[in-house]
Amino acid sequence: MNNLLAIRIQKKMADFSKGQKLIAKYIEEHYDKVAFMTASKLGSTVGVSESTVVRFATEIGYSGYPELQQAMQEMIRNKLTSVQRMEVTANRIGNSDILDSVFNQDIDIIRRTMEETPHEDFYRAVDAIVGARKIYILGTRSSLALATFLSYYFNLIFENVLLVQSTSEGEIFEQMIRIDKRDVVIGISFPRYSRKAVKAMNFAHKSGATVVAITDSSLSPLAKEADNLLLARSDIASIVDSLVAPLSLINALIVTTALRKTGEVTQVFKRLEDIWDEYGVYEKVDDKSIEPAL
Q1: CB neighbours of 189 closer than 8 A, spacing ≥ 6?
Q2: Strand-strand pairing, 161-163 and 135-139
Q3: DSSP secondary structure letter of residue 142
Q4: pLDDT tens-digit readout, 135-148
Q5: Per-residue pLDDT at 212
Q6: Does the structure show a pLDDT above 70 at 258?
Q7: Which of 10, 232, 260, 288 has the smallest number of Cβ neighbours within 10 A?
Q8: In what order do the strands lie in the sheet with 161-163?
Q9: Of 3-7, 82-86, 138-142, 249-253, minimum mean pLDDT range
Q10: Contact (Cβ atoms closer than 8 angstroms) between residue 165 and residue 147
Q11: 286 in helix, strand or coil?
Q12: Confidence of residue 89 (pLDDT cuts 50, 70, 90)
């Protein structure tokens, strides 16, 4: 268990009530399970009231049970195996409608990300990106989808963008060999964190480039090397990586940088529209063939 949390519990152990000692013992032995329990569920599991659980959290220095729960989630976010994630997901959904549950979880993740994202950090990252000579974008495993999406639109906005291919560590460094202080590297990774992404960010930092990390926590290994840290919530207890909040953050990056370069971007899109029409890139839809909804 996290040393800080363990120290907090041990300091207060002598003053705990009988019920609070039961909670402390259960947390010490099963903190990986408690991280995803409601206060009510934890109380019923150890045989105490929900209010006793809430008082326990404040007694050891947290503002409430949600903050204690978040501390435990931070401890295990990079340790859950795929099997454990499946078990947690099944327990969380229970008998609820799966579709509604997933939608509601994603809505909550985006809401919390919006509330917790410092605007000054976001716009500082935008300034660095707009002023860069070259933009390197790196994402591995499930985060590769985010990196590819960002790269596609940034290539329409900027002249010099490289989506770093992450098939091997050697190839990553070869693609980034000319990187220097005039460049920006955008690294994207969420639990479980990619070792390749961490090493690439370390290399970029040592090379003097400005590093923008898009990740889920200040405790993320990507955060250590970041000059600009953009945090987006991800659901670490889902069978699949919930990347709706990171994608929304990336959408905001694309829109903001495009608006900063409105004149240039407008000309690019005008030319692209002409090319798309000339070469029939997109299928044309006859408005007359679309029946109005009744």
Answers
A1: 139, 140, 143, 197, 198, 213, 214, 215, 220, 222
A2: parallel
A3: T
A4: 999 998 889 999 99
A5: 97
A6: yes
A7: 288
A8: 161-163, 135-139, 184-188, 210-215, 228-231
A9: 82-86
A10: no
A11: coil
A12: low
Q: What is the pLDDT of residue 238?
A: 54
Instruction: Please spell the DSSP secondary structure of 146-213, one letter per residue.
Output: HHHHHHHHHHHH-S-EEE---S-HHHHHHHTTT--TT-EEEEE--SSPPHHHHHHHHHHHHTT-EEEE
Q: How far apart are CA 116 and CA 176, in angstroms?
A: 32
Residue the block writes with tokens 């408005």: 287
Q: Residue 257's Cα: distance from chain center in Å?
A: 20
- Residue 141 per-residue DSSP state: T
CA 258, 264, 266, 270 dihedral sign is negative
Q: Kindly report the three-state secondary structure assignment for every residue of 230-270.
A: EECCCECCCCCCECHHHHHHHHHHHHHHHHHCHHHHHHHHH
Q: Which two tokens stand for residue 263?
A: 């004149």
pTM of the model: 0.70
For residues 265 and 229, which has the higher predicted lDDT (pLDDT)? 229
* CA-angle at 254, arms to 277 and 220, nearest 5°: 140
Rounded to whole angstroms, the Cα distance separating 172 from 197 reads 9
- pLDDT at res. 72: 79
Chain centroid offset of residue 146 CA? 11
DSSP3 helix / strand / coil % (the chain, rounded to 5)? 60, 10, 30
What is the model's pLDDT at position 31?
76
